[in-house]
Amino acid sequence: MSQKFQELIQSERPVLVDFFATWCQPCKVQSSVLNSVKEKVGEKARIVKIDIDQFPSIAADNGVRGVPTLAIFKNGELLWKESGVHDVNSLVGLLEQYSN
């Protein structure tokens, strides 16, 4: 999976990675926010969910200490990372900023 993850984040368009856990209540809130974000950004960006319990090495490699943690990658480079729940408008703004 690490290889696949590396391929995913090499994208020309921004990739928003949601590091989450199934037992995490704020992660469920973030997940519904991300559905709205996906509708608004469409093909400009990609949203990928990584379950930290299924892929602990990817979480560790990316310095994930708490969930939810969101990160934006483009061309393999980490552009932004923050823990906590984020609102639709902030995330759409970030993705549009990095998609140009």
Brief write-up:
The chain is of the alpha+beta class and 100 residues long.
Structural summary, described in words:
With 100 residues, the chain is an alpha+beta fold. The chain has four helices and four strands; from the N terminus they run αβαβαββα. The protein has a four-stranded mixed beta sheet with strand order 2-1-3-4. A hairpin with a 2-residue loop joins strand 3 and strand 4. The radius of gyration is 12 Å and the shape is globular.
Quick one: biggest sheet? 4 strands, mixed
Please tell me how large the radius of gyration is. 12 Å
Shape summary: globular
Query: Structural class per helix/strand content?
Result: alpha+beta
Low-confidence stretches: none
The total beta strand count reads 4
**Cα distance spanning the termini:** 29 Å
On the 0 to 100 scale, the average pLDDT is 96
Q: Count the DSSP helices.
A: 4
Order of helices and strands: HEHEHEEH
Tell me the β content: 25-35%
Can you list the strand order of the major beta sheet? 2-1-3-4
User: In percent, how helical is the residue content?
Assistant: 40-55%
